[in-house]
Amino acid sequence: MKQAKILSVFAAVLAWALPAYGAGEKVFPIGAFWPMTGPQAYYGRVMSRGALTAIDQINSAGGVEGYKMNLIITDFKNIDVNLTVTGVRKMISVDKIPVVLASFSVTTLASQPICEKAKVLMINGGAWSPKLVNLPYLHTIRLSQQQMLPAILKYFWDSGARKLGLMYLSDPSGELPMKNTVIPLWKKWGGTIVAEEPHQPGLTDFSAYLTRIRAGKPDAIINLSTGQDIAYAVKGAREIGLTCPISVPEWTNDLQTIAGETSENIFSCVEYYDRTSSYPLTQAFVKDFESKWKEPTDFYSANYYDAVKHIFAELIKRVVKKGGNPLNGGELEEAIWLDPKFDSVYGGKMTLKKDGSVDKPMMIFKIVKGKLTPVKQVMSTE
User: Fold this and answer.
1) What's the rounded Cα separation, in Å, for the pair 231 and 252?
2) Cβ neighbours around 261 below 10 Å, total
């Protein structure tokens, strides 16, 4: 019955409809903007399933302080900013959301001023642009590339790499980390950048970009693409004979399916989410998620589960305890600073910082036989 309930709610939110609740029942509406269709749909699927798993757990237990949670999703397809902005405005004016789950850098940045004006609390669990800091009402619980890149650069440098090729998405999420972190840091150490190749999203053929990178004979490549672009770029690199190590911003089952055997010697520095951990909160999440959705959890589903289960639910409790209104995003924002540490399926606590970023453990992984294999654990503050 719970599985059917989740699926029916999922269908309803895609249609922007609220599920039926009993007369007089209090509802806490949660907005979200994710790519539910198109080439980035993997992200929408796992992100929404993480949030829905938390919502089902909370509602099945009677809600939080009498409030049942409901999810309303804006599908922005292939990172369409106009669709996002239209959807966010609708969710604020019609659905009266006090909070929204954000993803992808350009859509998050476009929506933030709207949410700030309406006092809607934003939790971003997917985007990693360094521009996503010091913006009112926006909190990012995914590590930014500004936090993760120095670790993988140091790893490549210590491994003997000196010539670096760059490929990245032609938007702030790709451009800024390259310009502000990768290039100056690599040059400071005495390294050389042999190629810089920005590209638009949604490509499957990267041969022209990769041929120019190959001409520079790089010792390693830093890739800051997004979605399936990552896998197609990796596959294309191997097909034209680029065998050097490649760092990518993430690696998922979807990407592995595309890349196949070409994924060897690929590295990724991301938050360290361990689905096999014995930590009770982790196991409660993994058990429910994987029984409902028949796929493994990943750090994206974990982030959005944490946002709902451990941040939103806790903030509702804090606001109600003070005699406030949990449907007021401004009061929810204020409640964060009563204690910025929140439970997490990553183990222990995650700390929300005043600049909108988060402190979490992270790991350098290497893809070995199609699997993420831990290489070195570091902290995001290092």
Assistant:
1) 9
2) 9
For residue 362, which amino acid is it?
Answer: M
**C-alpha angle 300/357/28, rounded to 5°?**
60
- How far is C-alpha 158 from the chain's CA centre? 28
How far CA 89 is from CA of 12, 30, 124, 314, in Å, comes to 19, 14, 17, 26
Radius of gyration from C-alpha coordinates of the chain: 21
End-to-end Cα, the chain, rounded Å? 46
What domains sit in the chain, N to C, each tagged with a CATH number? Answer: 2-143+275-360 (3.40.50.2300), 145-273+363-379 (3.40.50.2300)
Q: Which structure tokens are listed for 233?
A: 């770029």
For the stretch 299-333, pLDDT in tens is 999 999 999 999 999 999 999 999 999 999 999 99
User: Is the distance from CB of 189 to CB of 160 less than 8 angstroms?
Assistant: no
Is residue 187 within 8 A of residue 180, CB to CB? The reply is no
Q: What is the percentage of the chain residues whose pLDDT exceeds 90? A: 84
User: Three-class SS of residue 222?
Assistant: strand
Q: How many residues does the chain have?
A: 382
- Angle at the Cα of 341 from the Cα atoms of 335 and 346, rounded to 5 degrees: 130
Burial of residue 24 (number of CB atoms within 10 Å: 0-12, 13-18, 19+): exposed
- What does DSSP say about strands 266-271 and 99-102: parallel, antiparallel, or unpaired? unpaired
**255-260, long-range: CB within 8 Å, 24+ apart, which pairs?**
255/228, 255/230, 255/231, 256/231, 256/367, 256/370, 257/231, 258/228, 258/231, 258/232, 259/231, 259/234, 259/235, 260/235, 260/370
Q: How many CA atoms lie within 13 A of 174 on its CB side?
A: 21
Q: Is the pTM of this model over 0.90?
A: no
